[in-house]
Amino acid sequence: MANPMQEILERIEALQEQLEAEIGKRREAFRYQIENGRIVFEEEARRRHRELRIRLLVFLRRTRPMVVLTAPVIYSLIIPFVILDLFVTVYQAICFPIYGIPKVRRRDHIRIDRHHLAYLNALQKLNCVYCGYGNGLISFVREVASRTEAYWCPIKHAARVDGTHERYAGFMEFGDGEGFERGVAASRNKLRKEE
Prior knowledge:
The protein has about 200 residues and is mainly α. The chain has helices at about 5-30, 45-50, 55-60, 65-75, 80-100, 120-150, 180-190; strands spanning about 30-35, 40. The chain has a domain at about 65-190. Strands 1-2 form a two-stranded antiparallel sheet. The two termini are about 30 Å apart.
């Protein structure tokens, strides 16, 4: 008998592949390609982007003063982000080889590429670099944490949790004490085979 949860996971994976294919089509529509890790726009697209850029002073004049005043609050998060980045990187470098867990590649999560868009002014580009780093870092940390959880405690919670990571559906059921040791071993073996 087929496992209903496994069937759902397979459908989700198929939908994710469809979504990636659709994103690929959009790349064509917006006339850029990724060649050897570099973003390359067609010349006409680059020209049009430069025309669409809103000059920095115009952009600042259009921005509400209260928005400008929140900038130091937003950018102050760079300090805990960098500290988190440092600690998680060191943790992974020390612990993952000991546990036999494949390391998470930062470049799969942290993308700094929006500054190549000619329709953004300097401040917008800075904002995009910051958001790319911050959100990418959270994604990186989440992946490190999910691998850690899969290794040490692959048990679902008793109550529903929003935004679970992709491994969560394969975790053991809450309250399955008899299957715990076997489930931990299976989760660790599966994790070690990744990548």
